[in-house]
Amino acid sequence: MRQRRIGLWLIGACGSVSGAACLGLAAWSRGLIPTTGLVSTLPSFQHLDLDPPDAFVVGGHEVRQADLLTPVMELHTRSRVFEPALIDACRSDLQAWSAHLRPGILYRPNAAVQALSNRPDVRRLRHPLEAFLAIQADLRDFQNRLALEQVIVVNAASTEPPFQPDDRHQSWDVLRRALEHEADLPLPTSSLYACAALDCGFPYVNLTPSRGASLPALEELACLRRVPHAGQDLKTGETLLKSVLAPLFARRHLRVLSWVGHNILGNRDGWILNDPENKASKVKSKDALLAELLGYKPQSLVSIEYVESLDDWKTAWDHIHFEGFLGTKMTLQFIWQGCDSLLAAPLVLDLVRLVALAQRCGEAGALPWLASFFKNPLAATTHDFTYQFALLEQWAARHQSRSS
Amino acid sequence: MRQRRIGLWLIGACGSVSGAACLGLAAWSRGLIPTTGLVSTLPSFQHLDLDPPDAFVVGGHEVRQADLLTPVMELHTRSRVFEPALIDACRSDLQAWSAHLRPGILYRPNAAVQALSNRPDVRRLRHPLEAFLAIQADLRDFQNRLALEQVIVVNAASTEPPFQPDDRHQSWDVLRRALEHEADLPLPTSSLYACAALDCGFPYVNLTPSRGASLPALEELACLRRVPHAGQDLKTGETLLKSVLAPLFARRHLRVLSWVGHNILGNRDGWILNDPENKASKVKSKDALLAELLGYKPQSLVSIEYVESLDDWKTAWDHIHFEGFLGTKMTLQFIWQGCDSLLAAPLVLDLVRLVALAQRCGEAGALPWLASFFKNPLAATTHDFTYQFALLEQWAARHQSRSS
Amino acid sequence: MRQRRIGLWLIGACGSVSGAACLGLAAWSRGLIPTTGLVSTLPSFQHLDLDPPDAFVVGGHEVRQADLLTPVMELHTRSRVFEPALIDACRSDLQAWSAHLRPGILYRPNAAVQALSNRPDVRRLRHPLEAFLAIQADLRDFQNRLALEQVIVVNAASTEPPFQPDDRHQSWDVLRRALEHEADLPLPTSSLYACAALDCGFPYVNLTPSRGASLPALEELACLRRVPHAGQDLKTGETLLKSVLAPLFARRHLRVLSWVGHNILGNRDGWILNDPENKASKVKSKDALLAELLGYKPQSLVSIEYVESLDDWKTAWDHIHFEGFLGTKMTLQFIWQGCDSLLAAPLVLDLVRLVALAQRCGEAGALPWLASFFKNPLAATTHDFTYQFALLEQWAARHQSRSS
Amino acid sequence: MRQRRIGLWLIGACGSVSGAACLGLAAWSRGLIPTTGLVSTLPSFQHLDLDPPDAFVVGGHEVRQADLLTPVMELHTRSRVFEPALIDACRSDLQAWSAHLRPGILYRPNAAVQALSNRPDVRRLRHPLEAFLAIQADLRDFQNRLALEQVIVVNAASTEPPFQPDDRHQSWDVLRRALEHEADLPLPTSSLYACAALDCGFPYVNLTPSRGASLPALEELACLRRVPHAGQDLKTGETLLKSVLAPLFARRHLRVLSWVGHNILGNRDGWILNDPENKASKVKSKDALLAELLGYKPQSLVSIEYVESLDDWKTAWDHIHFEGFLGTKMTLQFIWQGCDSLLAAPLVLDLVRLVALAQRCGEAGALPWLASFFKNPLAATTHDFTYQFALLEQWAARHQSRSS
Fold this sequence. Notes:
The first copy, chain A, is α/β, with parallel strands linked by helices. Helix content of chain A is 43%, strand content 19%. Chain A contains 14 helices and 13 strands.
């Protein structure tokens, strides 16, 4: 039987998460690396009909002057990761995929994104319909030229400022009309891309805290077109730890008095988050889960700051002050030093494989069983990582029994 | 309906865990403290027929010259915990309970325990049967004089050296005969106490890594006498964190390369553990769970050291080195600063309440659903804290439906 | 020979630094405590003619409804410091001194200080001369009624916002005229107090980053009146460490790439600093020394945040990223957990004793040999703590030889 | 004027410190790197007649099967340091110098060193005189063949167990006779090498805690032959920090109650130190300075443990518990993450340059002004880093004025 060919379309294709994911995909295809970091290769998921790495072809949008090798070399040089031999071995794949890149589309970008967009052929469009159609043309062309069975669209672009939806974003019917008729319609670029993808029947995965498909109108569209989507904001470091530590405090009836988290990092993600407008989305996403997990709201502080010398090595210090028996105050502190892009990259591949399978199984709308991947999971009912992961295992177990 | 009266018999009654538990019990009875730290007061357990704090009467064995106020004052002065007003308000209870203390019984103690035993009327017995009968006499006298419905025996004594069982410890029949006929029978003091308690029909809870009831012969005895027991080694700090963090690494397919844990503390527990013989039991108990939780054995180091100035404030530094995607090495470190006795004390009260209820429900032998309380849980199948806690919640849920 | 009597006049007398200093002074007088924490009792300073603790009488200004016992009890209850017996033993002194307190004087206070000032008899004055004279009246009355040889005025009040001096603050002549004639003259309260003190011939010590006596006009006044003064901003924790660690990096030719410092605390100082206006002074004072000590300006971040549960226990996390040989990046992190008021309090007593002696020796103006006490030392040429301390030891050595 | 040619003879030439020093020397000669990490290039030392990097020719002894590229590649691959381009550019130097390597000489080695010595032509000698003469032959041959003005011998070999000298090690006369006549004379290999070097008139630098030239007989020999020497045990991480932090506590009169330091590392140094015999020397060297710096002996613990995954990245956690004013206990913790060999390597080059100059200036015996480089400095009177560094600067200042 012929192998399926799946398109992986990356918005923000030359960012470091995308670059690391592409290098990893190429290296994994060639059998050059162990599967460490890839959740979907754990024993619980081994018998699912997940696509092998060589099923995937990469394309994407990008606003900066770069190709897929750019972030890889930058990570290697600045953050001292990857063996040079591995890069060499994968170079031809990265070059071949780079040929599928298209200039990004800017719709009402804020200043920080403007500053970043140095690709001369980037498309600055004022009418949302124009932008929407341009995106769809790129996506469909990618599918047709490469004869792809499925295309999964992944938002790996910079974090946008928070967005307050209004009546126009509550139903697809209303939003579609606004798209067609309203120049300068307030709509985040991420949602415009999500809209274009879902309308084509392409699943959408949102790695960032940007709005993406998390608007009622887009959920409706996803269900109409029978397309699954997933998001939002990958959970890779400090928040991941929160999602196992906060339940521990709750179960031991230890009262968290304050939870302070300071994050420092020096990659482009950090640079964009240094803009207070963009940072607001992230901080909110990192902070929200405590109240749900603890059942009350302790004093909490979250900061993210750009420290250039750290490059991709995100360092987080968390100070958790809690009260135990007889009013005794105690402290837990942790320091997390992780290479941010390399924590995120394997999860991108996991999500693409799982969402592609979900689409083939006929699932549509936000997928709640992917909650363990995200800081702010769509359609999910808990932030407790262990229970989120159990959902994923249960889905896998159910799916296996159905497929056997 | 008259309230039940339950005896709480503490072996090592004047140690700091016992002292803090007694102060807490008195303060809780009088409504002076919130229930923070008490697991059994969480909503999941609210509808169980658990005994209120004023149902309990305390007694116990002790080898040192002290009463129940001694550890309380020592903790207050040296570790700066407890409000003086709280101690004053509870003083009369602690004094009343101190009248029930009995001199401890020493059977083949090692040098560190010998050094500790400064109570002049401590009973040094050479024949195990003599010791066994002396313990039972004390326990029965406690029950009879105070007209107690149940007595729960709790081992809060200093950690013993590891013990290697032989054929004599495999069945109750053989052990019983050896007890009767063999002077100097190799048997840890903790197991002798456990044996005496279970044979009287009194549940036994082991807070320490000492052997206690964890010998096949004693499990058989517990089942014969229809008595439940629980253990071993309370999980209060570093190991508690391991039991949520190790599963996180496993579920994210991050490979733990090394896990180093250094513990420093300055209380009597720390002093006893400074003896290499006694420390061995503890280190083993703290280290074992990693391999089970990860599915492989990373390099690991655990140390516990006596640092006098810290008193009861145990500080643990853990350094976890792990490998992510594409062979990238990353680090998580945590620092735990907890008041050891005050982390343990509420769990003692939880266990006593839960075990008392279990006995009334007819359960016998080691209770696997108490696994979340222990570093080395008896009859348990997992070290994953979240799953251990789910067992407790499920037991509570099942029990409620039966009792309603 | 009759013992000298020296007045210690505290502005912000019921703050926690003042309270701890007063308790310490009383306890030291009574021989109840070791001299740990008091720099001036080290062997290098033993033969100086420094005043013994019982030479001092305390008075002060305060805007809040409180006496000297208030901060002591608050520290005891909230931050779990001080033995109750010690407080009892010193209670009569604190009460006696409280009788010397006077309602504070507010001149152009900002909102945060306004919010704090709940004492009904606080004096809100609009004309600087009125305020100036009211302060002097209080100070002189204190001296006269108690027949004090010297009065040392100490600014322990809340940190003020940064102040930009203009031409009026450059010479005493101009400033004096402005004081007399210009209602609403821009002048920080701390400088108004400093002015009043120096003009009376009373030395002034500034524990805070507020302007105080650090204006050219006030330096001129101090020299005119032959009065010494010292400041500013006590160096007690994170910055103290910076002042020995930064020189270490410089001397080993290790290049500091970034220095990030996050401070969290929960006392009134922290609450006031939560106001961005006030915080600005502090952050500047904490950050300035790096460039001087290293010889270049690395990226640096300093934050101070109010975390209520910490009370007086200030916690600082510093992350220092540096480059060594062959471009290798390495990291030093430190975590400081100190009781802020108890780090500052003994330094207050040291400064008062040293400044009183300096006045008797005829020194005037800012005292550069007190640099080791301050984050932003007046008239000092280095931030290197070891060299600053050597200045103090040299002064002591010189002074001894002269006095013998 | 023709440039001087200086020999740098490394004992343990293929260890990672040696390898990093050689790579650095080559790279610096070629102008490929900044001088970061090299103390002797700081402004204070710029006008000294120190030899430029291209004055040096490397040779050495080694017991393992390796050349100078071996440790460089191992560091690069395992610890992710050095740019590949840098290694390539320096490869020819490392190869050329490798031709000067000679098989190491083993005299009474312990088991751990035996296990390491896999070079087939290593010379295992039983009579000390035989070993002494073999070393001298190699050193003289190196000097003569390459026409070197000076040869500096550096001990970069693995740490030896502690050695207890006796009467034979107190004077050169006695030791010389024992060397000649006593087979199996107790004498550490490091001292045998030191003896051979000094007797040839070659300065000796001891980077390790091994005995080396620190025996009275060898000090006498150095003075007789007019040769300088320096040692011992490079101060690169945790102890370096101790030497600025302990004086800080002393100067602020804060009482250190306990100082706990845990070091973990995964290089060969760590592997050798895992042998308890060898570790003893190191721990002693790391621990001794506290009592001198503080003026009393706090409780202290130092551990060094081999954690393979860390490779050359030594991580130290130090927990310092101290008492401030009014008996308040506070805590400072630091975490040091440094690449051990790259901290040591530039200091090797500094020492060689400084010692070569000292010899030309006619200095002989242990050089006290090099104290700032060592954990256990010979002939030094203080462990306070700032004062040690001042000695170096004063020497430089004096020397400049003499040379101008």
